[in-house]
Design a protein that fits this description.
alpha/beta; 2 domains; about 375 residues; Aspartate Aminotransferase, domain 2; 15 strands; binds pyridoxal-5'-phosphate; seven-stranded mixed beta sheet; Aspartate Aminotransferase, domain 1
């Protein structure tokens, strides 16, 4: 029985570089086996940090010091440690987009932070809503400690924040003296158009904390991500870790794999992902244009679909699952777990033939989970 699994954001097994990965693993063992006898320490493999500094510097056009990079066990560890370092007391507030990565919601709520969501539009977090929210929270007993934002290929909505809005965000954060944690987990899973500079490239203040990953350009199983920050946050965040460092073997293999830079593999993987994005969007257009609106992301792994108001989300999940179609529901990404008429499609790892068969299954499931067959009464992704 075929399974249409659009639920989890994973890389595409079709472009996994098996031969080069095997060669890199052998070279890492031959050349670095001695170092495997030692604990890696807080920052981790120097060669991979150097490569990630080059990756960031080439993309962002600013110098990046590898000594200000700490490798992590996936970017998720960096997200969590940054929250722990910036929180001073349980109940402290972190501001995020209204919809954000479900893993971050679990981690931040899990360590005792209160999450306050800010309304979004097609360009990410809305700055009028952010300014309003911060003004209101000034009167609260709970303290706002930082902003966590996904400015690029946002998970789940696929939005990108343009330069003008990033500058506004920096101004607001400066006014309130708030650190910003910018999670650029999907950085370099890029399909179309020019890349917009990251917040740390636009602002050389100590308040910028940046998170990158190898999960999305290589594979999540290597569990490698990184934190890039300036003092004092860099030291404060790294001092929260008690795991003796991240997997040195995985780092050594990837340092070998990326010896000639990181772009070669991106140039192979990204066009295939772009093709999958186009295929999903074409099929959505054929089957759901009268009822739904969706994002056409310029990068990342997700398409965000707005559903008609009369959808029963629980029924949709049941009907879809009964037909082997799996998606992530909007509620899972809402900071207050609100039941919302949205779903997220992760397309990166789904073979083309299953995309072609799967999207019509989704369309039929949506029809079955509605109380009417009326056309949508909205034109945009957000109100
Ligand atoms: C926005 C975001 N941040 C962090 C992560 C964690 O990724 P990893 O720990 O594999 O680098 C994910 C994974 O999906 C994500 O979407």
């Amino acid at each position: 029985m075929e399974v249409y699994d659009f639920a989890i954001g994973q890389t595409n097994p079709e472009t996994f570089p098996m031969d080069a990965f095997r060669d890199a693993a052998i070279a890492a063992i031959e050349e670095e086996h001695d170092a495997f006898n030692r604990y890696p320490g807080g920052k981790g493999h120097a060669g991979l940090r150097q490569l990630m500094a080059e990756r960031e510097s080439q993309r962002e056009g600013v110098p990046v010091d590898p000594e200000m990079i700490a490798l992590m066990n996936g970017s998720m560890q960096a997200v969590t440690l940054a929250g722990q370092a910036l929180m001073q007391a349980p109940g402290d507030i972190v501001i995020t987009e209204e919809y954000t990565y479900s893993g971050t919601i679990s981690a931040y709520k899990g360590i005792g932070l209160t999450m306050v969501g800010v309304a979004m539009d097609e360009q990410g977090m809305r700055m009028d809503a952010l300014a309003d929210t911060l003004q209101k929270l000034q009167r609260s007993d709970q303290k706002v400690r930082f902003i966590y934002t996904l400015t690029t290929y946002q998970n789940p909505t696929g939005t990108c924040m343009p330069l003008s809005r990033k500058k506004q965000l920096l101004e607001i954060a400066d006014r309130y003296q708030l650190p910003i944690v910018e999670d650029n987990c999907y950085g370099d899973v890029h399909f179309d158009g020019a890349k917009v500079p990251s917040l740390y490239a636009l602002d050389d203040s100590e308040r910028q904390i940046y998170i990158g990953s190898l999960s999305k350009i290589f594979a999540p199983g290597v569990r490698l991500g990184y934190l890039l920050a300036r003092k004092p946050h860099f030291n404060n965040i790294v001092s929260q870790r008690f795991d003796a460092g991240s997997n040195y073997f995985a780092a050594a293999v990837l340092a070998q794999f990326y010896k000639k830079g990181i772009w070669e593999h991106c140039d192979v993987a990204n066009p295939v992902l772009r093709h999958k994005r186009n295929l999903v969007c074409e099929l959505l257009n054929e089957t759901l244009a009268d009822f739904c609106v969706w994002s056409v992301p310029v990068g990342g792994l997700f398409i965000w679909v707005r559903l008609p108001e009369d959808i029963d989300m629980d029924k949709l999940r049941q009907v879809a699952a009964a037909n082997n179609f799996y998606f992530a529901a909007g509620k899972d990404f809402h900071v207050d777990s609100k039941q919302v008429p949205y779903l997220r499609l992760a397309f990166g790892h789904v073979p083309d033939d299953l995309i072609k068969k799967g999207i019509p299954v989704l369309a039929r499931s949506i029809s079955a989970a509605r109380t009417s067959n009326s056309a949508r009464d909205f034109e945009t992704l957000f109100d």
